[in-house]
Amino acid sequence: MAFSHPYFITLAISFIITFAVVPYLIKKMKERGFVGVDINKVEGGLNLGEMKQLKAVEVKEAKGKPHLVPRGGGIAVITGFTVGMLFSLVLMPEQKIDLALGGLLSITLIAMIGIIEDFIPLRQVYRTVLPAFAALPLMVLNAGTAMMTLPFIGDVHFGVVYPLILIPLGVIVCSNLINLLAGFNGLEAGVGVVASTGLFGAAYLLGRPESAFIAVALFASCLAFLFFNWYPAKIFPGDSATYVIGGAIASAIIIGNMERVGVILLMPQIIEFFLKARSKFRAENFGTLRKGRLHYAGRVYSLTHVVMKLFKPTEKQLVAILLLFQAVFAFLGITSIYW
Question: What is the pLDDT of residues 113-169, one digit of tens each?
Fold first, then answer.
Protein backbone atom coordinates (compact mmCIF):
# COMPACT_ATOMS: atom_id res chain seq x y z
CA MET A 1 0.00 0.00 0.00
CA ALA A 2 1.13 3.57 -0.73
CA PHE A 3 0.74 4.64 2.91
CA SER A 4 3.22 1.98 4.03
CA HIS A 5 5.87 3.01 1.49
CA PRO A 6 9.12 4.10 3.20
CA TYR A 7 9.02 7.50 1.49
CA PHE A 8 5.48 8.16 2.73
CA ILE A 9 6.38 7.11 6.28
CA THR A 10 9.33 9.54 6.30
CA LEU A 11 7.13 12.27 4.84
CA ALA A 12 4.40 11.74 7.43
CA ILE A 13 6.80 11.71 10.38
CA SER A 14 8.66 14.86 9.29
CA PHE A 15 5.42 16.71 8.59
CA ILE A 16 3.69 15.76 11.86
CA ILE A 17 6.72 16.54 14.04
CA THR A 18 7.29 19.94 12.42
CA PHE A 19 3.60 20.83 12.51
CA ALA A 20 3.45 19.94 16.21
CA VAL A 21 6.59 21.85 17.20
CA VAL A 22 5.80 25.19 15.49
CA PRO A 23 2.93 26.32 17.81
CA TYR A 24 5.10 25.55 20.83
CA LEU A 25 7.94 27.59 19.31
CA ILE A 26 5.64 30.52 18.56
CA LYS A 27 4.52 30.61 22.19
CA LYS A 28 8.02 30.27 23.66
CA MET A 29 9.64 32.81 21.33
CA LYS A 30 6.97 35.36 22.21
CA GLU A 31 7.44 34.73 25.93
CA ARG A 32 11.21 35.16 25.67
CA GLY A 33 11.00 38.22 23.44
CA PHE A 34 12.69 36.65 20.41
CA VAL A 35 10.71 38.55 17.80
CA GLY A 36 11.40 40.57 14.68
CA VAL A 37 9.57 43.26 12.74
CA ASP A 38 7.81 42.14 9.57
CA ILE A 39 9.34 44.91 7.45
CA ASN A 40 7.05 44.34 4.48
CA LYS A 41 4.00 45.17 6.60
CA VAL A 42 5.28 48.66 7.49
CA GLU A 43 3.42 51.16 5.29
CA GLY A 44 5.88 53.53 3.64
CA GLY A 45 8.80 51.18 4.31
CA LEU A 46 11.92 51.58 6.41
CA ASN A 47 15.25 53.05 5.43
CA LEU A 48 18.37 50.88 5.24
CA GLY A 49 19.57 51.92 8.69
CA GLU A 50 16.25 51.02 10.28
CA MET A 51 16.23 47.65 8.51
CA LYS A 52 19.67 46.75 9.86
CA GLN A 53 18.70 47.90 13.33
CA LEU A 54 15.58 45.71 13.33
CA LYS A 55 17.07 42.56 11.82
CA ALA A 56 17.70 40.80 15.11
CA VAL A 57 15.54 43.00 17.28
CA GLU A 58 14.20 41.86 20.62
CA VAL A 59 10.79 42.88 21.88
CA LYS A 60 12.10 45.45 24.35
CA GLU A 61 13.83 47.25 21.45
CA ALA A 62 10.76 47.10 19.24
CA LYS A 63 8.20 48.88 21.42
CA GLY A 64 5.74 50.73 19.23
CA LYS A 65 6.87 48.96 16.05
CA PRO A 66 4.11 47.12 14.16
CA HIS A 67 3.93 43.50 13.13
CA LEU A 68 6.17 41.79 15.66
CA VAL A 69 6.63 38.15 14.65
CA PRO A 70 8.42 35.36 16.57
CA ARG A 71 11.66 34.25 14.92
CA GLY A 72 13.80 31.13 14.99
CA GLY A 73 11.15 28.92 13.39
CA GLY A 74 13.85 26.93 11.64
CA ILE A 75 14.24 24.95 14.86
CA ALA A 76 10.93 23.24 14.03
CA VAL A 77 12.10 22.48 10.48
CA ILE A 78 15.34 21.01 11.84
CA THR A 79 13.47 18.89 14.39
CA GLY A 80 10.99 17.47 11.91
CA PHE A 81 13.66 16.87 9.29
CA THR A 82 16.02 15.13 11.72
CA VAL A 83 13.38 12.83 13.23
CA GLY A 84 12.11 11.89 9.78
CA MET A 85 15.63 11.14 8.57
CA LEU A 86 16.39 9.00 11.63
CA PHE A 87 13.37 6.86 10.81
CA SER A 88 14.44 6.71 7.16
CA LEU A 89 17.75 5.12 8.19
CA VAL A 90 15.75 2.08 9.30
CA LEU A 91 13.70 2.05 6.11
CA MET A 92 16.32 2.49 3.39
CA PRO A 93 18.56 -0.21 1.86
CA GLU A 94 21.37 -1.16 4.26
CA GLN A 95 24.16 -0.36 1.82
CA LYS A 96 22.95 3.25 1.59
CA ILE A 97 22.81 4.00 5.33
CA ASP A 98 26.37 5.31 5.69
CA LEU A 99 25.86 7.99 3.04
CA ALA A 100 22.47 9.01 4.42
CA LEU A 101 23.87 9.17 7.96
CA GLY A 102 26.81 11.26 6.76
CA GLY A 103 24.39 13.61 5.03
CA LEU A 104 22.26 13.88 8.16
CA LEU A 105 25.31 14.68 10.30
CA SER A 106 26.42 17.41 7.89
CA ILE A 107 22.94 18.91 7.75
CA THR A 108 22.64 18.83 11.55
CA LEU A 109 25.98 20.63 11.94
CA ILE A 110 24.91 23.28 9.44
CA ALA A 111 21.61 23.66 11.29
CA MET A 112 23.44 24.26 14.55
CA ILE A 113 25.35 27.11 12.91
CA GLY A 114 22.03 28.57 11.78
CA ILE A 115 20.54 28.34 15.28
CA ILE A 116 23.56 30.13 16.76
CA GLU A 117 23.23 32.85 14.10
CA ASP A 118 19.54 33.32 14.93
CA PHE A 119 20.32 34.25 18.53
CA ILE A 120 23.97 35.37 18.49
CA PRO A 121 24.66 37.13 15.16
CA LEU A 122 27.96 36.02 13.64
CA ARG A 123 30.33 38.01 11.47
CA GLN A 124 29.91 37.39 7.75
CA VAL A 125 33.29 35.65 7.50
CA TYR A 126 32.21 33.04 10.06
CA ARG A 127 28.85 32.56 8.36
CA THR A 128 30.69 31.86 5.12
CA VAL A 129 33.44 29.58 6.44
CA LEU A 130 31.79 27.55 9.23
CA PRO A 131 29.61 25.45 6.87
CA ALA A 132 32.85 23.99 5.48
CA PHE A 133 33.40 22.21 8.80
CA ALA A 134 29.86 20.85 8.57
CA ALA A 135 30.91 19.14 5.34
CA LEU A 136 33.44 16.94 7.19
CA PRO A 137 31.17 13.84 7.44
CA LEU A 138 30.63 13.93 3.67
CA MET A 139 34.35 14.45 3.08
CA VAL A 140 35.30 11.52 5.34
CA LEU A 141 32.85 9.23 3.54
CA ASN A 142 34.12 10.50 0.17
CA ALA A 143 30.48 10.97 -0.80
CA GLY A 144 29.60 11.39 -4.44
CA THR A 145 31.91 10.73 -7.34
CA ALA A 146 34.95 12.65 -8.54
CA MET A 147 33.78 12.27 -12.15
CA MET A 148 31.58 15.19 -13.22
CA THR A 149 30.07 16.13 -16.57
CA LEU A 150 30.59 19.83 -17.26
CA PRO A 151 28.76 21.84 -19.94
CA PHE A 152 30.78 22.36 -23.15
CA ILE A 153 33.67 20.32 -21.68
CA GLY A 154 32.37 16.81 -21.02
CA ASP A 155 33.50 14.36 -18.33
CA VAL A 156 36.17 15.64 -15.94
CA HIS A 157 37.77 13.56 -13.17
CA PHE A 158 38.64 15.80 -10.21
CA GLY A 159 40.35 13.12 -8.12
CA VAL A 160 41.27 14.20 -4.58
CA VAL A 161 40.12 17.76 -5.34
CA TYR A 162 36.49 16.60 -5.19
CA PRO A 163 36.32 15.51 -1.51
CA LEU A 164 38.85 18.04 -0.21
CA ILE A 165 37.68 21.16 -2.03
CA LEU A 166 34.50 20.70 -4.07
CA ILE A 167 32.41 19.03 -1.33
CA PRO A 168 33.01 21.75 1.32
CA LEU A 169 32.70 24.42 -1.36
CA GLY A 170 29.34 22.98 -2.43
CA VAL A 171 28.06 22.99 1.15
CA ILE A 172 29.23 26.58 1.71
CA VAL A 173 27.66 27.80 -1.52
CA CYS A 174 24.29 26.08 -1.05
CA SER A 175 23.87 27.07 2.59
CA ASN A 176 24.54 30.72 1.77
CA LEU A 177 22.66 30.88 -1.55
CA ILE A 178 19.30 30.08 0.05
CA ASN A 179 19.80 32.98 2.44
CA LEU A 180 20.25 35.48 -0.40
CA LEU A 181 16.72 35.21 -1.81
CA ALA A 182 14.71 35.58 1.39
CA GLY A 183 12.86 38.01 3.64
CA PHE A 184 9.23 37.60 2.51
CA ASN A 185 6.47 35.56 4.13
CA GLY A 186 6.61 32.00 2.82
CA LEU A 187 9.55 32.49 0.47
CA GLU A 188 12.28 30.48 2.20
CA ALA A 189 10.00 27.59 3.17
CA GLY A 190 8.40 27.70 -0.28
CA VAL A 191 11.81 27.43 -1.92
CA GLY A 192 12.48 24.42 0.30
CA VAL A 193 9.24 22.77 -0.85
CA VAL A 194 9.84 23.44 -4.55
CA ALA A 195 13.56 22.58 -4.53
CA SER A 196 13.04 19.35 -2.59
CA THR A 197 10.32 18.33 -5.05
CA GLY A 198 12.78 18.72 -7.91
CA LEU A 199 15.49 16.86 -6.01
CA PHE A 200 13.16 13.99 -5.16
CA GLY A 201 12.02 13.67 -8.77
CA ALA A 202 15.60 13.47 -10.03
CA ALA A 203 16.80 11.17 -7.23
CA TYR A 204 13.84 8.80 -7.66
CA LEU A 205 14.32 8.53 -11.42
CA LEU A 206 18.07 8.00 -11.02
CA GLY A 207 17.60 5.35 -8.31
CA ARG A 208 19.32 7.29 -5.51
CA PRO A 209 17.25 6.45 -2.39
CA GLU A 210 19.58 8.18 0.08
CA SER A 211 19.12 11.50 -1.73
CA ALA A 212 15.41 10.84 -2.20
CA PHE A 213 14.89 10.36 1.55
CA ILE A 214 16.68 13.65 2.28
CA ALA A 215 14.43 15.39 -0.25
CA VAL A 216 11.26 13.83 1.21
CA ALA A 217 12.14 14.82 4.78
CA LEU A 218 12.99 18.37 3.65
CA PHE A 219 9.78 18.66 1.62
CA ALA A 220 7.57 17.54 4.52
CA SER A 221 9.20 19.71 7.18
CA CYS A 222 9.17 22.82 4.94
CA LEU A 223 5.56 22.20 3.89
CA ALA A 224 4.43 21.87 7.52
CA PHE A 225 6.30 25.05 8.44
CA LEU A 226 4.77 26.86 5.45
CA PHE A 227 1.32 26.56 7.04
CA PHE A 228 2.55 28.98 9.72
CA ASN A 229 4.98 31.03 7.62
CA TRP A 230 2.72 31.80 4.64
CA TYR A 231 1.32 35.33 4.43
CA PRO A 232 0.63 36.71 7.00
CA ALA A 233 3.44 34.88 8.78
CA LYS A 234 2.95 33.75 12.36
CA ILE A 235 6.66 32.93 12.70
CA PHE A 236 9.87 33.70 10.81
CA PRO A 237 12.20 30.89 9.63
CA GLY A 238 15.49 32.58 10.49
CA ASP A 239 18.95 31.43 9.43
CA SER A 240 18.35 28.08 11.11
CA ALA A 241 15.82 27.28 8.37
CA THR A 242 17.75 28.66 5.41
CA TYR A 243 20.90 26.83 6.52
CA VAL A 244 19.14 23.48 6.92
CA ILE A 245 17.41 23.92 3.54
CA GLY A 246 20.70 24.77 1.83
CA GLY A 247 22.58 22.03 3.66
CA ALA A 248 19.98 19.40 2.79
CA ILE A 249 20.02 20.44 -0.87
CA ALA A 250 23.83 20.29 -0.95
CA SER A 251 23.93 16.88 0.75
CA ALA A 252 21.30 15.38 -1.56
CA ILE A 253 23.14 16.71 -4.62
CA ILE A 254 26.56 15.45 -3.50
CA ILE A 255 25.41 12.03 -2.27
CA GLY A 256 23.29 11.46 -5.36
CA ASN A 257 25.91 12.67 -7.87
CA MET A 258 23.37 15.20 -9.14
CA GLU A 259 25.58 18.26 -9.60
CA ARG A 260 24.05 19.21 -12.94
CA VAL A 261 20.54 18.93 -11.48
CA GLY A 262 21.64 21.07 -8.55
CA VAL A 263 23.10 23.87 -10.66
CA ILE A 264 19.92 24.11 -12.74
CA LEU A 265 17.66 23.80 -9.70
CA LEU A 266 19.44 26.65 -7.90
CA MET A 267 19.60 28.96 -10.92
CA PRO A 268 17.29 31.59 -9.30
CA GLN A 269 19.67 31.75 -6.32
CA ILE A 270 22.70 31.89 -8.64
CA ILE A 271 21.11 34.81 -10.53
CA GLU A 272 20.40 36.45 -7.17
CA PHE A 273 24.07 36.04 -6.22
CA PHE A 274 25.27 37.94 -9.28
CA LEU A 275 22.65 40.66 -8.84
CA LYS A 276 23.67 41.13 -5.20
CA ALA A 277 27.35 41.12 -6.19
CA ARG A 278 26.70 44.31 -8.18
CA SER A 279 26.00 46.06 -4.87
CA LYS A 280 28.89 44.29 -3.11
CA PHE A 281 26.18 42.41 -1.19
CA ARG A 282 24.98 45.54 0.57
CA ALA A 283 21.56 45.75 -1.09
CA GLU A 284 18.36 44.59 0.60
CA ASN A 285 15.55 42.65 -1.07
CA PHE A 286 12.81 44.92 0.21
CA GLY A 287 10.76 47.61 -1.47
CA THR A 288 8.30 50.19 -0.16
CA LEU A 289 4.76 49.23 0.82
CA ARG A 290 2.08 51.58 -0.51
CA LYS A 291 -1.60 50.70 -0.20
CA GLY A 292 -0.79 47.02 0.20
CA ARG A 293 1.55 46.80 -2.82
CA LEU A 294 5.33 46.67 -2.97
CA HIS A 295 7.13 49.30 -5.04
CA TYR A 296 10.79 49.65 -5.94
CA ALA A 297 12.35 52.54 -7.86
CA GLY A 298 16.10 52.01 -7.42
CA ARG A 299 18.70 49.98 -9.29
CA VAL A 300 18.01 46.27 -9.61
CA TYR A 301 20.05 44.25 -7.11
CA SER A 302 17.63 41.35 -6.56
CA LEU A 303 15.03 39.24 -8.33
CA THR A 304 12.55 40.75 -5.86
CA HIS A 305 13.36 44.17 -7.33
CA VAL A 306 12.61 42.86 -10.83
CA VAL A 307 9.21 41.54 -9.75
CA MET A 308 8.36 44.77 -7.91
CA LYS A 309 9.28 46.93 -10.90
CA LEU A 310 7.29 44.79 -13.34
CA PHE A 311 4.17 44.02 -11.33
CA LYS A 312 4.02 46.20 -8.18
CA PRO A 313 2.71 43.08 -6.44
CA THR A 314 1.33 42.35 -3.02
CA GLU A 315 3.75 40.39 -0.85
CA LYS A 316 1.78 37.20 -1.45
CA GLN A 317 1.89 37.74 -5.23
CA LEU A 318 5.63 38.45 -5.17
CA VAL A 319 6.34 35.20 -3.33
CA ALA A 320 4.05 33.23 -5.67
CA ILE A 321 5.85 34.63 -8.74
CA LEU A 322 9.29 33.79 -7.33
CA LEU A 323 8.19 30.26 -6.38
CA LEU A 324 6.78 29.74 -9.87
CA PHE A 325 10.15 30.87 -11.25
CA GLN A 326 11.84 28.38 -8.91
CA ALA A 327 9.46 25.63 -10.05
CA VAL A 328 10.44 26.15 -13.70
CA PHE A 329 14.08 25.41 -12.85
CA ALA A 330 13.08 22.51 -10.60
CA PHE A 331 11.31 20.97 -13.59
CA LEU A 332 14.30 21.67 -15.86
CA GLY A 333 16.55 20.08 -13.24
CA ILE A 334 14.51 16.87 -13.35
CA THR A 335 14.47 16.77 -17.15
CA SER A 336 18.24 17.41 -17.29
CA ILE A 337 18.89 13.78 -16.31
CA TYR A 338 17.76 12.88 -19.85
CA TRP A 339 19.89 15.47 -21.62
Answer: 999 988 888 887 887 788 888 998 988 887 767 777 655 566 777 788 888 888 999
Rounded-to-integer distance, Cα 255 and Cα 127, Å: 23
Question: If pLDDT is split at 50, 70 and 90, which confidence band does 268 have?
Answer: very high
pLDDT higher than 60, residue 276 = yes
Q: Quick one: pLDDT at residue 165?
A: 87
Q: What is the pLDDT of residues 4-42, one digit of tens each?
A: 689 999 999 999 999 999 999 999 999 999 998 888 776
**SS3 track for the chain:** CHHHCHHHHHHHHHHHHHHHHHHHHHHHHHHHCCEEECHHHCECCCCHHHHHHHCCCCHHHCCCCCCEEECCCHHHHHHHHHHHHHHHHHHCCHHHHHHHHHHHHHHHHHHHHHHHHHHCCCCHHHHHHHHHHHCHHHHHCCCCCCEEEECCCEEEECCCHHHHHHHHHHHHHHHHHHHHCCCCCCHHHHHHHHHHHHHHHHHHHHCCHHHHHHHHHHHHHHHHHHHHHCCCCCCCCHHHHHHHHHHHHHHHHHHCCCHHHHHHHCHHHHHHHHHHHCCCCCCCCCCEEECCEEECCCCCCCHHHHHHHHHCCCHHHHHHHHHHHHHHHHHHHHHHHHC
- In 3D space, the residue among 268, 315, 322 whose CA is nearest the CA of residue 296 turns out to be 315
Confidence of residue 249 (pLDDT cuts 50, 70, 90): very high
